[in-house]
């Protein structure tokens, strides 16, 4: 039985559930369902606060969990990243009123509000800066206006939240984050976990690639293969037409229209792109 922690709310919740659903795990019926048992995959999905997931996984109570890299570092829990999941991409940055500070070293003796006290504390120690860390639960951007802090350290994606309160980022990013699958440091692989990783990798490939089919004159096959090399070489089959072959290859979704144009330019016909629904590589 695979026991997997999934964020029950917040920025990672939707994308994590969608990815698990695409990987064939049973979705929860409504947001009040805290545990989903899925006999088909022999798994139990536990919906927990994203911040707590690294703690549960680090304690060894669960086999794996989905959380943010920033939350994993912040927790200090003995858990390792197994794979990056490509969503919840953000940076963790300092921000303040425009023109107040230029770098972390300007924060010596200042008050910094954050929900990520562990991550911020480690960074300040590494940079040799002594500052007072004000730990808040969320909406930390408001702390400056309320006179509780001189600067904040928070998650930034589009920067809209900061702009809306008249703050600006400064200095180098403290960390780059994205959703990750984690497990307890040093834990053994289980068949259930291997299956989950294989399925999630399959979802990523299905999202990132399309299948391209086309017909081409046999004498142009080398040129065609250089345009569509596929993952392990394309499938080339005889066509029921003298001097022609049919080719099938996986192509990165990004840029596949250009690939189709190039194939057309070298004389390919019936060039089709189709979505991949699921895969195991
Ligand atoms: N706007 C965003 N864009 C991308 N990733 C984000 C965004 N906000 C948060 N995250 C990421 O999502 C993860 C969980 O953060 P989230 O804000 O959802 O948790 P939380 O603050 O505990 O929950 P909530 O905000 O619902 O109280 C973190 O790894 C964070 O980096
Ligand atoms: O750069 P942006 O695209 O504006 O996104 C970043 C914001 O998103 C998150 O807020 P959330 O809604 O999770 O609220 P919280 O701060 O209370 O956690 C994060 O804490 C930032 O405030
Ligand atoms: Mg949040």
From TrEMBL:
Reaction equations catalysed: 1-(5-phospho-beta-D-ribosyl)-ATP + diphosphate = 5-phospho-alpha-D-ribose 1-diphosphate + ATP
Cofactor(s) listed in the protein's UniProt record: Mg(2+)
Subcellular location: Cytoplasm
GO CC, any one term: cytoplasm
Lineage: Bacteria, Bacillati, Actinomycetota, Actinomycetes, Streptosporangiales
Alphabetically ordered keywords of this record: Amino-acid biosynthesis, ATP-binding, Cytoplasm, Glycosyltransferase, Histidine biosynthesis, Magnesium, Metal-binding, Nucleotide-binding, Transferase
Protein name: ATP phosphoribosyltransferase
PANTHER family: ATP PHOSPHORIBOSYLTRANSFERASE (PTHR21403:SF8), ATP PHOSPHORIBOSYLTRANSFERASE ATP-PRTASE (PTHR21403)
Regulation: Feedback inhibited by histidine.
Gene name in the database record: hisG
Domain of life: Bacteria
Pfam families attached to this UniProt entry: HisG, HisG_C
Function in brief: Catalyzes the condensation of ATP and 5-phosphoribose 1-diphosphate to form N'-(5'-phosphoribosyl)-ATP (PR-ATP). Has a crucial role in the pathway because the rate of histidine biosynthesis seems to be controlled primarily by regulation of HisG enzymatic activity.
UniProt family annotation: Belongs to the ATP phosphoribosyltransferase family. Long subfamily.
